[in-house]
Specification:
97 residues; mainly alpha
Length: 97
């Protein structure tokens, strides 16, 4: 979905993030599209770089939280968590015999 999600941030990306958020005043969804990173990743970086005091203060946070994209990401994460849970249970059954 986001080709740069999970990849390390470069100095150039951090500089661009600063400009896009603090100078151009873009919201997290717009920055997400430019950086090709998940909005949650953008929020995390804004917090890490001390541009915002907490996640909910990010510009556009509520729009993102109410979006179909957010619901899709949450659903995909729940599915991954369930698969991991099932995998752990299978391993427990194999090794606890």
């Amino acid at each position: 979905m986001f080709k740069n999600a999970g990849e390390p941030w470069t100095e150039n990306e951090d500089n661009q993030l600063n400009k896009l958020y603090n100078v151009d005043m873009l919201d997290i969804m717009e920055i997400s599209n430019i950086h090709n990173r998940a909005p949650g990743g953008i929020i995390s970086r804004l917090c890490k770089n001390n541009y915002i005091p907490n996640r909910t203060s990010a510009r556009g946070y509520m729009t993102y939280k109410n979006s179909d994209l957010y619901k899709q990401i949450v659903s995909a994460n729940k599915e991954k968590e369930y698969k991991l849970y099932r995998y752990k249970r299978i391993l427990e059954n194999i090794f606890n015999r």
